[in-house]
Write a structure and sequence with these properties.
Bound molecules: (2S)-2-hydroxybutanedioic acid
Radius of gyration: 22 Å
GO cellular component, one term: outer membrane-bounded periplasmic space
Keywords: Signal, Transport
Order of helices and strands: HEHEHEHHHEEHEHEHEHHEHH
Pfam families: DctP
Family: Belongs to the bacterial solute-binding protein 7 family.
Number of strands: 9
Protein name: C4-dicarboxylate ABC transporter
Distance between the termini: 77 Å
Strand content: 15-25%
Length: 328
């Protein structure tokens, strides 16, 4: 094509771009470690859809699931370095950055999902979220997955003594590690993307996780025993790179805030349902299930009581007091 024609095509292209507002288009990259068909995967997809809509497509969202970009070890640093702009790690994984968050890892802190929502949306929830606001991190809110259950290879775990010597995978969290030390198990920290292989090669024999994570990652294929212990919460901190957010125009910032509020409502409504669906799917896989009796729960609680004592003696004790008073 001749020179004039090229110039004309370039001019036409710039006009098209201006008309569509594409010159201002920004990409928001999100990385996460779980499967797409999970409470976190679905909530992020909802958030993405809404951000694009509310920003009139001036923000395009790109989600990379399954730890394909960054895993547990690397995703927070990737966010700080603005290699990705948003992540949603578990509360447990954030305890390394903010010690007060250990309170959310305490076993049997919550009896049900309603209590979780009550606390996370209360003033103490707001205060905990504020603790996470740091130089490069903008904590947008809390999401939930649900309660963790115990899954094991060699039998159903009912009494604390059943854990004796069991090599058990934990997320990077001092409280969770201590929880399994108190059960006299052998906790080992492993990143989520390492778990399948560790189960497959028998390097771990048990773990705690939600039914949606257990089902969507196929952990049940080798570990056939699930104790429906509901002993601990698996929740997420939704975090954005602060510089990225500050550089957006005010309309785009509003789009992010509104999409986050709507996706959070969606998350609270759907997380429990997704775990119920995973429960049905796991039943169809003929897994062995056990529920704990009140007596067994009390045995577990007695074993875990030093965790509460430690937190109560820490400088963050007031978070526990505040949570307990919200729950009264
Ligand atoms: C895990 O590591 O077990 C979970 O944190 C994965 C997740 O993000 O739900």
């Amino acid at each position: 094509i001749g020179y004039d024609n090229q110039v004309f095509q370039q001019q036409q292209l710039s006009t098209d771009i201006e008309q569509q507002g594409l010159e201002d288009q920004i990409t928001l990259a999100i990385s996460h470690v779980v499967a797409e068909d999970t409470p976190k995967g679905r909530s992020l997809a909802k958030f993405a859809e809404l951000v694009e809509k509310y920003s009139d497509n001036s923000i395009q969202v790109k989600i990379s699931p399954n730890g394909m970009l960054y895993n547990d070890h690397s995703e927070v640093q990737a966010l700080i370095d603005n290699k990705v702009q948003m992540i949603a790690p578990t509360f447990s994984k954030m305890t390394a950055y903010e010690k007060s968050w250990e309170v959310l890892d305490l076993p049997f802190l919550f009896d049900n999902e309603e209590q979780v929502e009550k606390v996370l949306t209360s003033r103490v929830g707001h205060n905990l979220l504020n603790m996470l606001q740091q130089d490069k991190m903008l904590a947008l809110g809390f999401w939930q997955n649900g309660f963790k259950q115990m899954i094991a290879q060699d039998g159903l775990l009912r009494e604390p003594s059943d854990f004796q010597g069991l090599v058990t995978r934990v997320m990077p969290s001092t409280v969770l590690e201590e929880q399994f030390n108190l059960l006299k198990a052998q906790p080992i920290r492993a990143s989520f993307d390492e778990v399948y292989n560790a189960i497959d090669t028998n390097s771990i024999k048990a773990m705690e996780n939600t039914l949606s994570n257990i089902y969507s990652k196929g952990f049940y294929k080798k570990d056939r025993h699930i104790t429906l212990s509901n002993h601990g919460l698996l929740g997420y901190a939704v975090i954005m790179n602060k510089d990225f957010f500050n550089r957006l125009n005010s309309k785009q910032q509003d789009a992010i805030k509104k999409a986050m509020a709507d996706a959070t409502a969606y998350n609270y409504k759907n997380a429990q349902r997704m775990n119920e669906l995973s429960y049905q799917a796991l039943q169809n896989e003929n897994m062995h299930f056990a529920e704990l009796t009140m007596t067994q729960i009390n045995h577990w609680k007695t074993v875990f009581s030093p965790l509460y004592k430690t937190y109560k003696n820490s400088e963050n004790a007031y978070f526990l007091r505040d949570i307990q008073s919200v729950l009264q």
